[in-house]
Amino acid sequence: xxxxxxxxxxxxxxxxxxxxxxxxxxxxxxxxxxxxxxxxxxxxxxxxxxxxxxxxxxxxxxxxxxxxxxxxxxxxxxxxxxxxxxxxxxxxxxxxxxxxxxxxxxxxxxxxxxxxxxxxxxxxxxxxxxxxxxxxxxxxxxxxxxxxxxxxxxxxxxxxxxxxxxxxxxxxxxxxxxxxxxxxxxxxxxxxxxxxxxxxxxxxxxxxxxxxxxxxxxxxxxxxxxxxxxxxxxxxxxxxxxxxxxxxxxxxxxxxxxxxxxxxxxxxxxxxxxxxxxxxxxxxxxxxxxxxxxxxxxxxxxxxxxxxxxxxxxxxxxxxxxxxxxxxxxxxxxxxxxxxxxxxxxxxxxxxxxxxxxxxxxxxxxxxxxxx
Length: 372
Known about the structure:
Layout: H1 12-24, H2 30-42, H3 47-54, H4 58-71, H5 90-100, H6 116-124, H7 135-144, H8 163-176, E1 181-191, E2 219-227, E3 232-238, H9 243-256, E4 263-267, H10 276-284, E5 287-291, H11 306-314, H12 322-338, H13 343-364
Parallel strand pairs: 1-4, 4-5
Antiparallel strand pairs: 1-2, 2-3
């Protein structure tokens, strides 16, 4: 005759832990019931009495006791897996994600993008490791992996052979000659039309602008100059971009520092910014022109300064003509230079820098950092 089933002798730690669970645990929980089974069995209570105590089947009581004798207190937490066995493993999910993020052309298929049906068919017939998955389950797996069906986006790549040298020079002059470093750029085109923005208003009563308008005033460009040392911004409105306007702006920069010592001006790599006349004047005026690489205007320090202009001058506006716009622009510049460290300006500059930084990362990847 077989011996009755009984839990092995408890250690002091096991007895204290089981007693704590039975006394403080939530009555009726699986963990408390299993602790009661083990404690009662270890104290010599027969299986039939334990079954009546916890209102369970005798075979269930025996299974818990056997599991405790084999694994210890791990028997308190059953590892149940409801439903049918898992059909798609973690390795299969990796195969699905890798296939979904690979262009079909690289896999020898005659199309340029996946549909869910095409992807499921390819996975089922995939050589080496086929994965059979239904389309709805495939959608769930892709969603959980952070993969969605998106439109393609364009990006520009700089073909400037001197890109790294130009960026290194800009970094050097801004870090070593900040008191003699300036920036110049054109902001525009600016047209006379209602410009949307954000403003405080009563709930469900937003500020409204006309939706029907005619652009009969042409466009203008704001030619801006920025002084890094004391965070000052100035400029004028022009009808178009041109070398003569660029030269006038550079002369205003030279006039801001009339000492004759060398100045450094960062400006975009546009043809209107590097004509022979401008280069000759820069040589006579002791001004070094530091050009940004092609398609890399984000390297110009003046770019973040245009964000507040876009937010506080152009946003929520409906100017009558360019004269009014130019007057408002100059009013803002006077206020801005007198309140250069205003929190609203700094916040708008941070947003503009974040936008420029995200565009830069989309074009070039993560910015490289020099080793110390």
